[in-house]
Amino acid sequence: MNKQAVLHIPDSQYCHPINRNTVELRLRVSAEDEFDGVTAIYGNKYVYHVTRSEVSLEKNYSDGNFDYYTITLQLKDVRLVYIFVLEQEGKKYYFSEDGITERYDFDKAYYNAFQLPYINTADIMPVVDWMRGAVFYNIFVDRFYRGNREKDDSYINMEWGEIPHPKSFAGGDIKGIMQKLDYLDGLGVTAVYLTPIFCSVSNHKYDIYDYFEIDPQFGSKHDLQELVDEAHRRGMRIVLDAVFNHCSEKLPQFADVKEKGRRSAYFDWFLIDGDKPDPEKCNYQCFGFCNYMPKFNTSNPQVQEYLREIAVYWVKNFDIDGWRLDVSDEVSHDFWRVLRKAVKAVKPDCAIIGENWHDAHPFLCGDQYDGIMNYALTKACLDYFAYGNFGAKEFADKLNALYMRNSDQANRMMMNLLDSHDTHRFYSLSNKNTDALICGLSVIFMHPGAAGVYYGTEIPLEGGYDPDCRRAMDWNAVRGNTPVKEIISRLSKIRRHEAIRYGGVRFYAKDDVFVLERSHENKTLRLNISRHGGADIRQQGKILLCYNYKEKKADDFAFVIEEVS
User: Fold this and answer.
1) In 188-218, which positions are buried (b, 16+ CB within 10 angstroms) versus exposed (e)?
2) Does domain 137-245+298-355 have CATH number 3.20.20.80?
3) What CATH number is given for 3-122 in this structure?
């Protein structure tokens, strides 16, 4: 046995309460080790030496290096102690806080058993229920649709459909989004995520100088309220972009600091090296190397209160349904805890979604974000579908590894996506391979969490890196029934299935076919994908949706979604 590979951490993704009576346990072991059995012996810490229960764990996940044994325990108490027993070649090994031993004294377990001493309700990470089956549509507002033909259009400097430049303005606005809600509804969209809509000098609006007003290029507060009301009438949610890491140099507080230096009441709102900010020397922290976007000192209580007020204002007064947090991994944990408490006090099911491109577990423990934009899944889909860097087994291994990073609850609130306003278009990176794009979307829609679609994917729209990935929506192309549009609409309907909303998940490979299974009660939905044609990729279920599959034969980049009772 590779003892160094065996890992378990209480009160983490390896042991977390789902509710007061349910706890998920995970045990990591080496993928090279074979065990005759893995069990957990558990009970109440005060009577553990007298009475205990034993339950077998199942090997449900494997990432190529490690296997993960899991069990969901139904408890009769809110106090839990436990150890693991690993059986190998006729011998029993006990795993506790003392490590791996060949004997275990239950009379002394009080000192070394793993523990959840008490399951406090406040420490249980709740799930925002509407996120489970949500279909997000990510809109870069300036490029989606112009609905207000009476506004001042003197700022518009590009023709609709032109290749954009960093300072291009196309004229999209909030009224335009509202006018396209029926279209989005038909596509199966249940949540709309908008890039920033507040006052800014740029087209992207990530340099905000007034957080309490809508940028006139996009409309008014009345327009936003109308959009929210119309979306809610259709059962859709509206999520806005919170830029709390940095602001515009034109923010009044920063302008005051530029004028007065240390004499300004706002000097400590920012992170300045010297007595006064100097844009030419950029002697202050900012977003990247952009001197026009100074970074907030989010450890400052006054800054925290200012940003907290902004977040609450739009939830309380306009009933928005969530915040996407820009550059969220650069902001202090302390502030996110403040923001979460404030927002959730106003609207408990308001979703808080971080922009973290990497492992975000420290932010996903129930006291900060609900989920993140799942760019790690994006990268895995690019490697498998667009670049062909690995096969079905390696893809399954990767998805298992990513799933084991976080708790069950956090996994169900991820915003899964193939691309966004910050990346190349997936379609372009796959050499405009529509089949690869569609197969990638099938994973996004079947994966636990919310499915994310970047506007124009359904056409599909091309685009390289920013600003090329922010081309204007081609509404002429939408009028045609493109294969991608049709597949998204049908995948959206499948997401209503209880197995998608509440089911467990398995990722594995069968020969060279990647398989993603979602199971709930007596129903299983199974996605089978092949990148190489010839094989019959169906197993034994009722076909709900297929692509590039007919007469029991798969073409290149084919999938089958089947239901098994």
Assistant:
1) bbbbbbbbbbbbbebbbbbbbbebeebbebb
2) yes
3) 2.60.40.10
Short-list 92, 81, 146, 147, CA closest to 114:
81
Q: Please tell me the predicted confidence (pLDDT) of residue 529.
A: 97
**Predicted confidence band of residue 343 (pLDDT cuts 50, 70, 90):** very high
Told to judge if 321 belongs to the known catalytic residues of this protein, a careful annotator would answer no
Q: How far is CA 168 from CA 155, 157, 173, 242, 472, in A?
A: 9, 6, 14, 22, 11
- pTM for this model (two decimals): 0.95
What does the pLDDT average to over 529-539?
89
Q: Domain 502-564 is in which class?
A: mainly beta
pLDDT number for residue 436: 98
Average confidence score pLDDT of the chain = 96
Is 521 tagged catalytic? no
Task: Tell me which of 223, 321, 326, 562 is the catalytic residue.
Answer: 326
What CA–CA distances, in Å, run from 202 to 3, 54, 165, 169, 246? Answer: 55, 61, 12, 9, 14
Can you tell me the distance from the alpha carbon of 311 to that of 143, in angstroms, rounded to the nearest whole number? 25
Rg of the Cα atoms in the chain: 25
Q: Give, in order, the Cα–Cα distances in Å from 542 to each of 438, 490, 508, 534, 537.
A: 21, 16, 20, 20, 13
Distance CA 319, CA 322 (A): 9
CA distance 194 to 534: 42
What are the residues whose beta carbons fall under 8 Å from the beta carbon of 344, sequence distance 6 or more?
350
Please tell me which residue in 355, 397, 435, 517 is annotated as part of the active site: 355
